[in-house]
Structure formats: structure tokens, C-alpha cells
Specification:
13 strands, homotetramer, 7-stranded mixed sheet, 19% strand, Dihydrodipicolinate Reductase, domain 2, 12 helices, globular, Rossmann fold, alpha/beta
């Protein structure tokens, strides 16, 4: 099994690498990076010294064509320039960027501010949320990995939407992410002294993850869903915490039981016992999503708390979970380490 | 002007001290602490070395009777044992604990788990939120300072409630606080290695600040208000961020203008220009509350973002603001320093 | 292979558990905890939910006697009460506390403030630093795991001392640790709001790790070594950074080459290329110790920078490394995951 | 009193502004910034909204010529282009950059990598460390403010050097700084996710503050002093902690008494009682430097611990202290607020 990673210098690319070095079915890795071409990974990123002995290559279609699967950890707009030729030669592609997440190409172009370079591939892409799309993922050759926020919101609402328990008109997703979710691109508002010991909302007037979430929630519900979505920036490295608010159609619904039954056989979704609250650190470095449900007033109001590691279940771990499904490996291969606490 | 502080060893007591040492109208301070009796403040808290030369005294009614005003920074249940005798001898009292916040004594006893020691004083207490109660505060001899969360929720909704703009049935307060809000009492879940680099909700099934908030919001609205209230713990020292969700009765309401007009002359409430998001650090160490309002979908949904420093506007600064009003000082005396950024 | 952990509720006990759940040679685990007896691990520590399905047992010698090896993650003074009886029935013991680290029992009693409960076992104990003591560890039945600070100081100086390159009279160890190094015992100075966004030295007048370090450095040098040792508290969860200062006997010594040669075949010690500085995060969650050496003035002054994860190479990882050696497993079994960055 | 600040957008410029808005003798402020020209300060930096109502101006010599004093908070190399013309028209200058700190112009040019633009002004500049140079500062028209690290090292050693107590050959300065010390210039290694929950040394092979420190220590000692200087990066916003190691000429020296006597009348240097360790938070936001001295082995080895806020005593506060001296104000004007703890 030969695996390629395009853009293995950002947080999601390095997270893929961290997880793949212990994956039992990965024989060889090809890492590409224009800027680091020819340099050893361990020299550029000292945390990999002696973990892996590998040099960065130029990202060329010829070299990548020898891979069984290629992961794209590139900024939006890059994967779409290379994916068609890779698919043509039979290489499977797992894209961690947003290039193939939104079915409506014109909506994608509006939110991402560019013309889409491979609109013909969009319909072919399968949204890589295994708990919702496992069968389609198994057959896919192009995976659009979900965004980090969307994964939490969608997993937190899936049992309610599939079972038709939720009023669809007034769902609120109050979400908060660690800083690694914004990547490594330099900007003042990601500097340590700007973020540390502070907290704020951002993008209240509109965030790119909202149309993605609404598309998938609508698929889940079989009906159009619009939500209120407010992201916040947490002074932590990794971790997303979503606090979801909705109203049940029937306030007597046993939601704790519903969630436990729904996710009973999912390897990476854990429903906490009633009364416990998940912390982002519970899942630090893992592919696990922890969920709590609560009906504080014994009325129709339901609150769902969801945590994940934005770099793992929110990105690279979920991408590997998809790879495992596509190649018929055990779904937990390479993803079974316990959380790093504290 | 002689000022007493009972319990000047916790975070709110020391914050009072920090602010009062530069207050132009405070001539002498009396600090009480059973455990530190006879010790110099600067020796116990090295940040005060050479700032103030004072020893802790035993908290006795006789000594406190010489003060013009006494602040209580004590755990719930303590102030109520001393307040009646102080009021009797003409000492004004500003209580930072929850002892006199809730008018319904039986509800107080339910949430705080003890019998109230001075139920006769409850009706006499004025809720110390100057933007709502300034005239009553000026005449009061017993102030019940608002809780830290309630201050943000109440200031964030006051313009809407007083003007009758808001649907009262579905208000949500998604709030997050720095760790100092939980005080210094030892518990595992406040240890650095438990809190750092993590985030979680807590108390989703019920929090003591909820009945306080609902009481005041109902007074503001002239109608019963019930809210959904979900607190979260932030890995920061100081700061509360509240994200408030509601629905306008009329989606065409100019809420930005409404808030700007409502708070135009308030010295400690700042409405940010449309499109800006407040950070907790903007108000670190100050008595300022910053507010943003947003209608992301141009529909009835309104989002109000509110930040304060939980130890200042959320506790000790607001207590001094009340003192300034009670004693006819300038309302900003001792409270005009700029925020500590970064 | 049956493994027991006594005290599997503190940071080192849970770190052992985190590492052992993926260890290829561990068949069954026995976790003891008086306070959590009968409770499931995943219920008490939600990060282990669905990772391990196990209940805490009462720590009794009878139950532990069925183990092949027992780890003690207990406060100082506990292991010594149970170790003799375990050794008697042929159970091997790896003690992560300080009970058997210091050969001079009276010195141990002075620094730890209690009478030693098993002085006869002290001489039998092998100091569990594999890079120094690998052969003895292989034959031992009682391992005294090194302290977290000592591991970094000893590994940073070992190549110099074994080769007789260093003046022994003026060695300085300026060390800094994350808060988990102080354990979970409640104290005000470990509260988040006391530690966060601050930094300080502590224990300058004397720290328990100093006699341990001096004993081992003296063994390495074959001569008495006294050092200046100043610990500091870092506002981070995990990680120790030691900055070691010494003087070479010969300023022309090629120390970079000396270190590279010395540690060339060590699986868990990495000498960084000249000019790089190690970060604690490079080794977060791993058993790796990274070292840089520098001669800034091209004179006799040498500076050695050493980082480790205090819970892994500084405690539980090193304990497993010892177990691997004692039981002839591959030395890296269970310890090969890459660092969690960021 | 008209005060100009050139470069009032970086951390030291905004810190000056924070402190000057409450300074009793400052009547008007002129803030310059090329990039923010015409914008209101409160709009760009929301922490100043309603604190100050002022717009940024273009930094032109004509406008600045009307000031009584001008502070330069600019990158190295900028002040030297404007200072000569300001001095010529009688404006006093306080430069917070390194342009005039080093007397040997060729050494300055070597370390800062550029040709000095105003070498004739270097000799005229007075090094702005009041505890060492108060009389010269009072008469100066050009102040070179000390670097942040140098302030701590110099104040920590001044009593020993002036009294000739210290061996000069083996002084070590192990120093650690919060991230704001590196300014706001964008670089990957200042991103939150790179710095948070980690710690490292940097610049071990050479740092620009070393020649500055050695120049001043040599002046203090009346003899050439060379030191070993190792800086470290702390995951905190503000604060420097220096751990200084030296050897006394006479191990019986009463260093605690020496320090207490030496600094008895200094308003901003506090010698802690024996046995206490200073934390950076003790002085957060203040112009205070706290010092502890320790002789752990009762031998010649002495350890001096020094903390300051790098933006206040290490930069802008000390600059104001110099201004107060130059203009015969009370030295504590604008600098008397207590530390922000926690």
C-alpha cells in the first residue's frame, strides 16, 4: 500500500503523517512539499526525527500516479487542479480541503471566492462521514472529507434527524475551536499574544462551514434545514466543542436511549452516560467523538454537547477512517491510541 | 472614607483591594481574614508588597462598625450572619456573595442548600446593576451585587427587554467563564493540568445563576422570562463571554441603533461598531462591558455577544461602581484604567 | 503477561494505562484504587471510555501476587510497605515513586521525612535508567524508576561524565517542568488561575531530586559530583526542559560528535543537529529525550539542552521501557507513537 | 505637556498609550502610524474604545516638532533616521528600540546588520536605567531605553557589581520571556499553536541583548564582564524571569541585607523576604522589578531571581519612568497601579 500526502507541512498533513507511521497496512509514504523539496521531514519538523526517515518530494502527477491513494492537505482550490488526472489513472483521492464538499458548484464558488477547477468531479465525490455514508465511502474513488466544525454538528444531530425527532426551524450550533483549526497561514489574530488568555466569537455574519452543514443536515432530515451557526476561537491547540440547541417534536422522547442505540456499534462515537459533560481533552489526539445529551427543563428543549479533536476526527483521523473503509481494512487501523490526557 | 473588606483573600477580595488602592476617595482600608490575622498583605500576596502596608484583622462586628461601607467577599451564607448588625449601626453593606440576590427566600434556600440567616433583609437589598437600578442604588444601604454571568446576560438583553422587542419564550444564554470565576476553593477540576488546553460545558442540568437571571430579566421585561442557560469553562484566568440568542418580534428592528442609543451615556457599557466581535481581553482588568449585536440571516434571529472581566464588572469593579453611586462620587472613580492587553 | 498498576488514578498511573492498552505483550491489566474500587475506569476517566473495559480493584497483596509485574504509581512511602511481600512471591516490581531511588537510607529519610519501611530492599533495587543501567535492569526484580528531572539531567551529562570531559565542580542544572510533574494532590499553587500566564522558580534552597541526581552523576563520573539545581514551574501540562551548564576540561572537545556517537543506537535519545533547539512539544506523549549541545563562546563553557515528557520518559514510558528490558521484549514495544504536535 | 509616540501600534507603543492615558502630567498625545493614518485608535484596538478619542497621524518631523518629548516604539533602524532633527529643534527623545543602546557603533552594526544612521548621536544617548543612571537621565535629551532582558540582568547584578562582591569570570544569565517580547511581526514560531503548551531555548549561539548587557555590567563593575546568556520562550503573554548564577568573592557575604539596603529607596525595585520566589504575575502590568537572592549551599554560589513585565519595566513603563525624571515629575506618576493578579 503506497500512500501519498500532498501538502504534508500544514497541521492536517503532519497529523496524517503522525497517524500513518503506525498504520499496519501502509508500506510506503510519499510526502510532497514544494518549499521543502529534498529536505528530510525530521530536519524540518524535529518531532519526527528518528520516527520517519523520508524526504519531501516535488508534488508532480507522475510521482503521485504510483500511489494507491493520495491525500490532499492543501489550501482550498489546489486539489481540484490535480484530482481529475489522478482519478483517470486509477488513484483514489481523499481530499481534506473543501474543494468537493458542496454539491452546488455556484454556491461553492460564492463562498470560496474562486471558479471551481473540476466541477465535473463534484458529483462523483462522496462526503466522508462514515457514520452517515459508510456504504458509499466503501465504493468511492473520491472522498470529500467533512470540515472540522461540520463533523461535530452533523454527528450531534444525526440520530435526531434520521429519526425525525427534531423541529427543523430553530437549530442553533454554538461552536468553539482550538487555533490549529485555522491552519498555519500567518495572521496577526493567530499570534500567541493575541489569542492566549482570551476568547471571542468570529464570523457571526457568515462562515464557510454553514452551507456545508446545512447541505448535509438537509440530506439527513430529508428536508431543508437552516441553522444559526456561531463559531468561537478557543485558546487551545486542538479540540472542537459544539453546543447544539434544538427543540424536540415530542418532549417525552428518550433521547439518551436514542443516542446510545444509534451509536452503539460505531467505533469512534461515544455517548456519555447521562449527567456527564465531555471535555475536548477527553479525545485529544484520537479519532473519537464524544456526545452528551441533556433536557434541562424536562421540556422540548434539547442540548447536545459534542467534542472532537479538530485535527483527528475533524480532519486527518476521519480521512484515515475513510481510507480504511475504502480499502477494506479494519476501520480502527492506525486509530486506536488512547487520548493524551493531561 | 473608611472601607472594610470581609474576606480579602479570595479573588474578588483581592480585586477589590487592587482597585481601591488607587481610589481617590478611600482614606483607609480594613481587611479581615481569620486565617491571615496579623499578617501583612504584601507578605501573603507578594503582588501587593510595597503597594499597600496593611495587616489583616479579625473579622469582628465591633471593628467593622467604624467603617462607612463594608464589602463582603465571603462564601455564600456568611454575609447574612453579619449584615443585620452592621445595618443597625448605620454601616452600608455591599455584598458580593449571593446572599441577597434572590427575592424569593425559599428559592434561595433550595439553590444554595441552607436556611437563610437574615430573610428580613432580603427585601431591603437592592440589586446592584447600575445600568438597571441606578436610582435605587443611590438610596440603598444594602447592595446585592449581581453574579458574574448574570451581569453579562442582563446587560446584553436589557435594551431589548425594556423596549419589548424580544420574544420571551426562547432565549438562550450560551456563556463561558475564565477559571477565577469559580474562586480559590480547592478542587481537582480547577487544577491547571485539568483545565489547560481543554474546554467543556458544565452544570447543563442547572446552575445557581439561572434563577437570578430569570428574576431580573422578568423585572426588565415586566413579564415572566425563562431561559436556557449553558455555562462553559474557559482555560483563561479572567473573562466572561456570553453568546445570547433570541428572536425579535419584528425582524426589521434596528437593533444596532437601539443598543447604541440605550447605552450612549453609560460609562461602562460599550456597544461595538457593527461587524466587530468583542474579545474578553478587550476588557481585562476593567469595569467595562463590551457588546456586539448581529442579525446574521436578516431575519428575526438576533445574536448578542457580551464580554466582561468576571472579577471586575462581574464582581469587584461593579461593587465599587455601586459604592461610587451610593456615596455620590464620580461613577468612574477608581475604575478608569485601560485594559491590560496583551 | 499480567500487569498490575497500584494507584492507577494519578497522572503517572493513567499514563501507564494509556501506553499499556496498546502494548503488544500485555494480556491483562489489574488496576487498583482504594477510592474507586468497583468503578469502571471509563466512568471515572471519560478519556478511557470504550478504550478499556475494566473496573478498579482493592489493592491487596493477594490479588497482586498473580501479576507478572506490578507498577507502583503511589505517593512516596507506599510501595515500601508492599514490595517485600511481592518480591517474596516472585512478582517483579517497577516503582515509579522515590522509595528505592536513594542508596543511603538515612539521606532518603531526611529528604522524605519518614522512616523507610523496607530498607533491606534498597540495595536490591536497580536504578531504571536504561541508557546507563541496561544490563542490570535486565536482571533486576525491583526497579527504582528515576525522577522526572533526574532523567533529563543524567541523560544530558552522561556522555560527558563517562568520557571524563567535564569539570565536576561547577555544574548547574536550570530545569523547568510542566504542572503534571507535581501530581494531582490539591494545593492552591497548582490551581489554573495561579499558574496560567505566569512563571516562577521554586525550591531554590533544596529539592528532593538533587540528592538523587548527585548520587547518579557521581556513579557516572566515578567521583563525587555536587551540582546547583534550580527548578521552575512552567504553565504547560507536560514537559521538562533542562538547561545544563558546565565547563569542559578541554575546550577543543568535539561535543556534538561525542553525543551523536554515544547515543547513536539508543532508541529513545535523539541528539539534534547542531544549531537546533529542542522544544518540549517535540516529545509530547513520547518516550523520547531530545538533546542539543552548544559551545556559544568557543571556549570551555558548554550548554546542554534536554527535553522530555515528564509523564513518559520522565515516568511511565521509562517504566515500560524497563519492563520491556526485564521481560526481553523489544525495547520500543508500546512506545513507538509519534509526538502529538501541536 | 505634549507627548508623541512614533509607532503606536506595536505592543510597546500600545503599552505606552495604556499607561499615559492616566498620567497626571500628560495633556495631549500624538500617535503616529503610517498604516493606520486617519483611523481612530479605538476602532483599530477595541480595548481603547471610549478610553481615548484620538486618530493616528502620519509620522512627520514637522508634527512631532511640537511635542515636548517623543517616544520611539519602532523597529531597530527607524529612530536613528528621525532623532537628529528632533534633537535639533529641542524635542527630547526616548527611544525604546536598540538604536542608541550600544556605544561601540561597529558592534551595533554587526549585531543589527545595518549601517547606523546617526552615529554622532550615540555618545549623547543616556542608557535609561534609572537605578543606575538617574542623574544622567535627569539631564539627558536622548534616552536609550534598556532592552527587556538586560533590565532584569542588570538590576539583578547591580548591587553585587557596584560593591565588588562577585567573581566576574563565570556569570550565567538563564532568562525566559513571554511572547510579547518578540513583538507583533508575523512568524510561524510565534503562532499560538506553535508556542502554547510548550517551552524551548532559542538563540543559544548568540543574542543581541548579550553585548548590551556586557557593556552595562562592565560599566557597573568597572571591569570587563563576559557572561553566558541563554534565552528561553515562555508560553505567556507578558513577563520575564531571569535566573542569574554567580560566585561570591566571599561566601560569608550577607547578600540579602546587601540587596535590601541597596534598593531600599527605589520605588520600582522590591527585594523579597528570604525564602520567597518571585512569579512573573506578581508584577504583571506594573513597572516593578522583584528580586530574590539565595545561597542554597551556604557556599560561594549565589542565585538571583528577577522578574519584570517585559512591556512595562522592560520597555514602556521604564520609558515613562525616565520621562518623569527628565521632566522633574514624581517618578511614580502614571506608574502606581497594582499588578493584575490573577
Amino acid at each position: 500500500m503506497n500512500v501519498g500526502i500532498v501538502g504534508a507541512t500544514g497541521y492536517t498533513g503532519l497529523e496524517l503523517l503522525r497517524l500513518l507511521v503506525t498504520h499496519p497496512n501502509v508500506d510506503s509514504l510519499l510526502l510532497t512539499s514544494r518549499k521543502n523539496k529534498g529536505l528530510s521531514v525530521g530536519r524540518v519538523y524535529p518531532e519526527f526525527q528518528s520516527v520517519i526517515d523520508l524526504e519531501y518530494s516535488e508534488p508532480s502527477p507522475e510521482v503521485l500516479a504510483d500511489c494507491d491513494v493520495v491525500f490532499f492537505c492543501t489550501p482550498h482550490g489546489v486539489a481540484q487542479t490535480m484530482v481529475p488526472s489522478l482519478l483517470e489513472v486509477g488513484v483514489k483521492v481523499i481530499d481534506l480541503s473543501a474543494d468537493f464538499r458542496i454539491r452546488d458548484v455556484s454556491m461553492w464558488e460564492k463562498w470560496y471566492g474562486m471558479t471551481h477547477g473540476a466541477p465535473n468531479c463534484v458529483a462523483r465525490a462522496v462526503y466522508g462521514l462514515p457514520e452517515f455514508n459508510r456504504e458509499k465511502i466503501a465504493l468511492a474513488d473520491l472522498i470529500a472529507c467533512p470540515g472540522c466544525y461540520p463533523t461535530t454538528v452533523e454527528l450531534g444531530l444525526l440520530p435526531l434527524l434520521e429519526n425525525g425527532c427534531l423541529e427543523l426551524s430553530d437549530i442553533i450550533a454554538n461552536v468553539a475551536s482550538g487555533v490549529s483549526g485555522a491552519g498555519k497561514t500567518l495572521s496577526t489574530d493567530k499570534l500567541f499574544a493575541e489569542v492566549n488568555d482570551s476568547f471571542k466569537a468570529y464570523g457571526v455574519s457568515g462562515h464557510r462551514h454553514q452551507p456545508e452543514i446545512e447541505q448535509i443536515l438537509s440530506e439527513m432530515a430529508g428536508n431543508e434545514v437552516n441553522i444559526t451557526f456561531v463559531p468561537h476561537l478557543l485558546p487551545i491547540n486542538r479540540g472542537i466543542h459544539s453546543t447544539l440547541y434544538g427543540n424536540l417534536k415530542d418532549s417525552r422522547e428518550n433521547v439518551q436511549g436514542l443516542f446510545e442505540d444509534f451509536y452503539r456499534f460505531e467505533p469512534f462515537v461515544q455517548v456519555l452516560p447521562a449527567g456527564l459533560h465531555p471535555s475536548t481533552r477527553n479525545v485529544r489526539g484520537t479519532n473519537i467523538c464524544q456526545i452528551s445529551v441533556c433536557q434541562p427543563g424536562n421540556n422540548a428543549r434539547i442540548i447536545v454537547l459534542v467534542v472532537e479533536d479538530n485535527l483527528t476526527k475533524g480532519a486527518s483521523g476521519q480521512a484515515i477512517q475513510c481510507m480504511n473503509i475504502m480499502f477494506s481494512f479494519s476501520e480502527t487501523d492506525g486509530l486506536s491510541a488512547a487520548a493524551l490526557v493531561p
